[in-house]
Design a protein that fits this description.
Order of helices and strands: EHEEHEHEHEHEEHEEHEHHHH
Strand content: 15-25%
CATH architecture of one domain: 3-Layer(aba) Sandwich
Strand order of the largest sheet: 3-2-1-4-5-6-9
Bound molecules: NADP nicotinamide-adenine-dinucleotide phosphate
Helix content: 25-40%
Shape: globular
CATH topology of one domain: Rossmann fold
CATH superfamily of one domain: NAD(P)-binding Rossmann-like Domain
Length: 283
C-alpha cells in the first residue's frame, strides 16, 4: 500500500497543489487546516492548528510522511515545531518535508533550527528553500496582494535589487517529488524561477499585461515595516520581512537555480506567463 502523507497548510499556495499532486499519484493523503471542512473534496481531513496542541496527535496518527507548512507564528517556530516533529517520529513518521525559505540558512533562528533538527533526526527529510513567491503579488492574503488591488502599488525598500521570483506551483511540484520519490532526497532544495527580476521589472510586466499602471513605491525599511503592520501583519513578522528587503537591495536573492527543472523535469514558469494568468486581479 502507498504511504499515507499528512499535508499541513492544505488550503494554501503550496499545500493545496502538493495534496492534489500526491492524491493524483495514488498516495493516501490527509489534508490538515484550521477548518473542519477540507479545502477540496478529501476523504481524510483533520482540523489542525499549530497553536492548539490538542489537534496535533490525531493529525499524525498512522502517517508515514508529512509536509510541514509553518505560518507566521508569534514566537520562534522551532520551539513548537521541533517537539511536534520529535513526537511524530516517535509515532512512526519516517519522512518530513519542510517549507522554509532561501533567505533562512540551516541553523539560523526559527525555521533554520527546524531545518537542522530534521537533518540530524529525521530518517528521511527534505527542506524546500524557495525564493520569493510570485503569489505575493496575486494573492490578497500575501505581502503585496492587498495594496495592488487597492491602488496598484507595491512598496519595498529593495531599490533595484533583483529576486528569483518563483511560482508556488513550481515549489509544490518540487515538494511532490520530495514526498513521493524513492529514495528520499535528504537534502535542501533552493528553488527559484527562471529569471532574477527587480520590483521595477515586475511592476512593468504587470502594467503591460493588465493594462492598469502598477507602481513600485521605493520606500525606507521603516516605512515598509509600518505599511505591513497597518495591513495586519504581526509586528515581529513585519519587522523581519522589511529587514529582508534590505538584503534583497544588496543582492542576496539575485540568482537562479536549476532545481525545478532538475527535480521535476519541467521548466519553472516565468513571471510574464504567471502575470498573464493573473492579470485580472490587478485590473
Ligand atoms: N511568500 C513568500 O515569498 C515566501 C518565500 C519563501 C518562503 N515562504 C514561506 O511560506 C510560508 C507561508 O506560505 P504562504 O504565505 O504561501 O501561505 P499559504 O500556504 O498560502 O497559507 C498559509 C496556510 O497555513 C495554514 N495556517 C495558517 N495558520 C495556521 C495555524 N495556526 N495552524 C495551522 N495551519 C495554519 C492556512 O490554512 P487555514 O487558514 O485554512 O487554516 C493556509 O493553508 C511561510 O512558512 C514562509 O516562510 C514564503
Amino acid at each position: 500500500m502507498k504511504p499515507r502523507i499528512l499535508v499541513t497548510g492544505a488550503s494554501g499556495n503550496t499545500g493545496r497543489p502538493i495534496a492534489e499532486g500526491l492524491a493524483s499519484e495514488g498516495f493516501r493523503v490527509r489534508t490538515a487546516t484550521r477548518s473542519t471542512t477540507p479545502p477540496f473534496p478529501s476523504t481524510d481531513h483533520v482540523r489542525f492548528d499549530w497553536a492548539d496542541p490538542t489537534t496535533h496527535e490525531a493529525a499524525v496518527d498512522g502517517v508515514d510522511r508529512m509536509y510541514l507548512l509553518v505560518p507566521a507564528l508569534a514566537e520562534d517556530p522551532s520551539l513548537l515545531v521541533n517537539p511536534f516533529i520529535e513526537r511524530a517520529l516517535a509515532r512512526g513518521v519516517r519522512r518530513v518535508v519542510l517549507l522554509s525559505a532561501s533567505a533562512i540558512p540551516e541553523g539560523s533562528p526559527g525555521l533554520g533550527q527546524v531545518h537542522r533538527f530534521l537533518r540530524e533526526h529525521a530518517p528521511e527529510w527534505s527542506v524546500l528553500q524557495p525564493s520569493w513567491f510570485m503569489q505575493n503579488v496575486s494573492n490578497p492574503q500575501n505581502q503585496h496582494g492587498a495594496s495592488l488591488r487597492r491602488d496598484g502599488t507595491l512598496m519595498t525598500s529593495t531599490d533595484k535589487g533583483r529576486v528569483g521570483f518563483v511560482d508556488a506551483a513550481d515549489i509544490a511540484a518540487v515538494g511532490v517529488r520530495a514526498l513521493a520519490d524513492e529514495p528520499s532526497h535528504d537534502t535542501a532544495h533552493v528553488i527559484t524561477g527562471p529569471q532574477a527580476l527587480s520590483y521595477d521589472d515586475i511592476a512593468a510586466v504587470m502594467s503591460r499585461v493588465s493594462g492598469r499602471p502598477i507602481r513600485h513605491v521605493h520606500a525606507s525599511r521603516e516605512e515598509v515595516r509600518r505599511h505591513l503592520q497597518e495591513a495586519g501583519m504581526p509586528e515581529a513578522y513585519a519587522s523581519m520581512l522589511s529587514g529582508l528587503d534590505v538584503t534583497l537591495r544588496d543582492g542576496a536573492e539575485d540568482r537562479v537555480t536549476d532545481t525545478v527543472l532538475r527535480v521535476t523535469g519541467q521548466a519553472p514558469r516565468d513571471f510574464e506567463t504567471f502575470a498573464r494568468a493573473h492579470a485580472s486581479v490587478w485590473r
